[in-house]
Amino acid sequence: MSIIAVVGNKGGTGKTTLALNLATGLGRSGDAVIIIDADPQQSAYQWRLTGADDNGVPAVVAAAIGLDKTVRALVAAHAHVVIDCPPSIKAPQAEQALRLAQIALVPVQPSPMDLWATTHIARVIEQLRPDNPRLAAHIVMSQLEPRTTLSRLMPEAAAELDLPVARTGIRRRSIHRHCALDGRSVYQAGKRGAEAAAEIDDLIAEIIPHDRP
Ligand SMILES: Nc1ncnc2c1ncn2[C@@H]1O[C@H](COP(=O)(O)OP(=O)(O)O)[C@@H](O)[C@H]1O
Ligand SMILES: [Mg+2]
After folding, report:
1. pLDDT digits (tens, 9 = 90+) for 113-162
2. Radius of gyration from C-alpha coordinates of the chain
3. Distance CA 34, CA 50 (A)
């Protein structure tokens, strides 16, 4: 069982995109997965409404109000609960999600300003640590463009931050936007989505603890 909060302090970094694709990837093993949309803007909820019912993207429950209760009600029946948070670490939903989660993912775009903004997130996570000592938080480099110098330098710069950086980064690929248009994940995009989906699989393998027999 895992509760994964996708959080950040900015809009447009890729939280909703990561939450939807991560949840879809987690569900491919047959595990019960649910997405909780904790953002009052309801992008994840809208995304799911746009898609076909049986397209493999897990169900999305909108819970910007009553997040705590919703998570507690759903956690027993699901192997993974993925919470998509509003674009502010000060939002009460983000704080609640960080109290409930075992894993926090912080997508960060390859720009110095975005990296600096994560200092504040690390501080909030540390403040909550006494209430949630087992929370494992990772920065996930998002919308990377490997051919640019900035993207190449970012992992190094991010290493200076107070939060660990996941080895797996998410590249900027137009298939992510195409998929959002019709409510799919990159797993439903056939060959065109294969590389993007493999990246999500790598992230899952990296961040989800595997019980050893
Ligand atoms: N890896 C990616 N490659 C290309 N476009 C992306 C990627 N991740 C997100 N996007 C696009 O960037 C925009 C913001 O993403 P979104 O997931 O809504 O961010 P947030 O939830 O942090 O506000 C959307 O148009 C989305 O389609
Ligand atoms: Mg969002």
Report:
1. 888 888 889 999 999 999 999 999 999 999 998 888 777 777 677 777 88
2. 16
3. 17
2-6: strand order across its sheet: 60-62, 33-37, 80-84, 2-6, 103-108, 136-141
Going by CATH, does the domain composed of 2-207 fall within 3.40.50.300?
Answer: yes
Is 143 close to ligand 1, i.e. is its CB under 6 Å away?
yes
Q: Is the pLDDT of residue 213 over 90?
A: no
Pairing of strands 80-84, 33-37: parallel
Best of 88, 105, 177, 202 to mutate for ligand 1, by most ligand atoms within 8 A of CB? 177
**How remote is the CA of residue 20 from the centroid of ligand 2, in Å?**
10
Give the domain ranges of the chain: 2-207
Does 176 sit in the ligand 1 pocket, CB within 6 Å?
Answer: yes
Q: Which amino acid is at 104?
A: A
- C-beta of 180 in contact with ligand 1 (< 6 A): yes
Residue 158 backbone dihedrals phi, psi, to 5 degrees: -65, -25
Cα of 191 vs centre of ligand 1, distance in Å, is 20
